[in-house]
Amino acid sequence: MAGALDLLRHAHANPGVTRAEAAAALGLSSGSATEIMGRLRAARLLGEVAAPSTGRGRPTTVLVAHPQGPLVAVAELTHATWRVTTAAIGGELAPAAVHRHSGGPPRAVLARIRAALDALCAQHGDRVVAVGVSVPGTVRGTTVVQAATLEWRDVDLAVLAPGRPLTVGNDASLAGVAEALRGAARGHPVALHLTVEVGVGGVLLVGGVPALGATGAGGEFGHVPFGDPDLHCPCGARGCWDVTVDGRAMARSLGRPAPADPRAFAGEVLAAARSGDRAARAAVAQAASALGRGVGALLNALDPSVVTLGGLGPDLLASEHFPASVLQAAMVWRRTALPPIVPAELGARGPSIGAAESALAAVLPTLATRR
Ligand SMILES: [Zn+2]
C-alpha cells in the first residue's frame, strides 16, 4: 500500500492536488489518506488548505507545502552570472536577484556564492535540508570536471554546502529534468532536451529520469562531432557540434572575430535578422541548419517521443532552415512520423528548477520517515 513517501512525492509533483485526488491516484482509502496526512502534517512536511467548492461531493482539501516545512537552497552559475534561491515541496522557486561575475579562478566566484548560501541558511535555519547547484560544465559527483566557458577544470563544489547534502548538475541537463517534471516534456516516456547557449548541452530522460551515464558526465551532445572536422573546440576535441550552432558560428559566418560573449552576440544577430539584415539572416540560417542536422541525427539514435529546445533553440527552431535540415538527417521511414520538436516552457528558470528537483529527490525518502 502507498505510504507517506508516495503521498509526499505525489503532492510535490502535482501542486494544487486535492487530498481526494491524491488518494484516488495512489489507491488509498479516505481513512488511510487522512491518517498519512496527519503524520506528514505532524512532521511539518505537508499542510492542507480548503479546496474551492465544486458543489459536488464532500468538501476536500488541497495539499500544500507545510508553512514551516523543509526547503532546498539552489545556486545557479552561468558563464556570466550567478544567483541563489530556495524551493519548497511543490517546487516553487523563491524570487532571486541575479549577480554578474567576471569569471577568473573559481575561488572568488565560489566565495560569493557560498556567502549567499550561508545567508539563506542563517535566515531559514534547519529548514534548509539540502543544496542543489547548477553549473555550465561537465559534472561528476560534486566536481565540475570541465567548464570550457569558465575555463575551470576539476573544481569540487563540496565547499558550497558543508554539512548538508549537495547535488551538482549540468545546467542543460537540469533544464531537461525540469522540462520532464514540470514543462513541455511532462508525461513523455522518452524525452530529449537540448539547450543552446554557448554550444549545446542536454539530456535524454527516460520516464522523467535523466540518463547521465556511469559517472553523471553524460549528456554532452555538443561534443558529438556533428560539426566541421577542421574546427577546434575549447573542449579539446575537433568537429564538435557545439561551435556550429551558437554565437561563435554566427560570428564566423559574418566574417567577424570570435565574440567575447557568444550568447549576447547571438542575441544581437537574431535581432538583426528579424529586422531584415541579409547577412544576419544567412548567419542564423546556417546555425539553424546545423542544429536541425544534429537533432535529426539524435532522433535516429535515441527515438524520443518529444524534443524540447531551450536557450537560443526556440529562435533557431522558428527558422525555415531548421525543419528542412531535420528531415534531411532523419532516416526516410522516420520523416513521416517525427516527434514534436517544441520550445522549452520553463525558459531561463529551467536549470534552477531542475537543481531544486534533484536536491529534493535526494532527500524526500529521508524526510518521509521523520517525526
Ligand atoms: Zn567539444
From TrEMBL:
One Pfam family named in its UniProt record: ROK
Superkingdom of this protein's organism: Bacteria
Coiled coil ranges: none
Family stated for the protein in its record: Belongs to the ROK (NagC/XylR) family.
Matching PANTHER family: BIFUNCTIONAL UDP-N-ACETYLGLUCOSAMINE 2-EPIMERASE_N-ACETYLMANNOSAMINE KINASE, ROK (REPRESSOR, ORF, KINASE) FAMILY
Name of the molecule in the record: Xylose repressor
Organism of derivation: Dactylosporangium matsuzakiense
